[in-house]
């Protein structure tokens, strides 16, 4: 199995609902350093997993919908805690939709899986792994 | 599949038995930077894999049993080489016992797997991955 | 010259005033991984620059005044852009006050300088360096 | 499942064929920081996944065949784009051959899998994972 | 003293002249992860050392003149070993010229110093530090 | 001013005397990731600060005198707390002696300064900076 990973980041504000979150129930923020990992069993004719230029560009586009925002104000997250885990799934699902739409190139239809990891600090990170249809 | 990882560290002394260890047969030491990764297929009602506060606290408790010690003197390791691999399994199994005992919260009963990675330097690390019952 | 550095982090929300900040004029947030570096020309009688336990504890205390907050609501920053540079100076000056107050131990009076570095992402960081009286 | 990883690096020149590579069609170069991860379900009698000294030495030997070279001139890669993905597979397959030949010690015959990751920058890396017979 | 650092990277081919370089006399390559640090004693009216957007953009522009190239073919380096040290100075001097030309904004005229660090691997890096007029 | 840094590591056991050290008064251990930074105002005729091959080799030789040892048993440290700070100075002074002895090549006589940084974990490190005669 092959994989390629590209890294970017976002800087967002948000707050959480639920006693389990302690002081993080207050409005605060985070830098998420985001790693998107694309997987496939075989390489395409160019010898790559995915066009890394398109992968980088599309990850930036997906992150651009979240970046420099207060996620508490985003309709897409109404009634949802925007935890690191939830955001990892959101980024992965939006990237998967772009793969399906052909935004990462026709070669990307050979991708079989995707993992998105969000690093919230030097001591904590979360990931969401999914298959691609 | 979702995962959350928290990081902490220990500083221990030990020595190894067996010619394969070369100079590491002498009493020496290591800083192990320890990553504990918790996995589950779905998030709990708060939108998390595990209460990250409890996960951090319980990892610190497990590591506290090893930290600032000469592992050659620990009864738990009598007759055992405390290699990075063995210590990764020890930390994972002790964390798993705490998950089972409810120390990471009732939500943690949804966890299905655990990986512990011990970084012994910038050029070497070991991991142990196990399921949770 | 000797130095010792300890690392911790904060997660805050804020917004900036001024066209130079572009989209960062919106309410957003950041994780700042914070390195506090203490300097002195000679070691104390214990062979250290500073009691690293106290240094870690006092850095955490200073950061605790900022952590999990919307800095736009903090009176201390009214009318001030809480840029990474400004926050680095704030943390350094508050640590310096604690050194002067004896909170890092009597040995810490031998310290001659302090640098605080705030990493806002994997591709950007800022620092403030000052002397200690 | 246990794993052990060792890290080394190479510095090579190469160029790519195919419009997808854009400016990387020109002769350029890369430092690849290479992580070789060895896996097995149980530890050997010494309590290790593999003799880490031999693993480090054999990784260096495999990388020595590529290091400080223009890969465009290497017969082994004639007609092949030496992408990060292709090089990850090359290093993995050559390490696997050395495991089979006994170069990592007789204990290494218990290894069941191998992953090689090549970091081409702070924002991109690729990996190839394979089983061992 | 304040500083702000931004990070980017280049991927180049080159070779060195001189027995001291051993196998690096052959055509090979490197990824250089490049940190540009800007210094000034006081912040500007926006509370920053430099417009970080412009700093990032100008660093990318300077690096774009080197990226994906064989430096042995660049007239600017004819007769010069493009060592990590030499490239650090080149990047620093070209950034300094852009500061002087106003490309980093009028506020950048308050800058007093600049350091450029090139990381050639996880175990080696070089830096060049200079003042700004 | 130019600098070049090379990285290596040691794994040692030791214990400390003095209530300030708390649990670190017990025999424990550490991995120290060691960065040796060499400085000079101008490059030599080859365009380098120092022969990086010799610098790497001599750092390894200096570290080899400490590696895989219990520092409490080393005569050189009798009556001395082998704190991270003290070890940073020890490594720096021993490297400086090798520079003076010509072990880093005749070109190394142009070096004017040296800094040694010891990373004891992902959250703490110490450094010692000195001039070279």
UniProtKB/TrEMBL annotation, chains A, B, C, D, E, F:
<comment type="pathway">
    <text>Purine metabolism; 7-cyano-7-deazaguanine biosynthesis.</text>
</comment>
<dbReference type="InterPro" id="IPR007115">
    <property type="entry name" value="6-PTP_synth/QueD"/>
</dbReference>
<keyword id="KW-0456">Lyase</keyword>
<keyword id="KW-0479">Metal-binding</keyword>
<comment type="similarity">
    <text>Belongs to the PTPS family. QueD subfamily.</text>
</comment>
<dbReference type="GO" id="GO:0070497">
    <property type="term" value="F:6-carboxytetrahydropterin synthase activity"/>
</dbReference>
<dbReference type="Pfam" id="PF01242">
    <property type="entry name" value="PTPS"/>
</dbReference>
<dbReference type="InterPro" id="IPR038418">
    <property type="entry name" value="6-PTP_synth/QueD_sf"/>
</dbReference>
<protein>
    <recommendedName>
        <fullName>6-carboxy-5,6,7,8-tetrahydropterin synthase</fullName>
        <ecNumber>4.1.2.50</ecNumber>
    </recommendedName>
</protein>
<dbReference type="GO" id="GO:0046872">
    <property type="term" value="F:metal ion binding"/>
</dbReference>
<keyword id="KW-0862">Zinc</keyword>
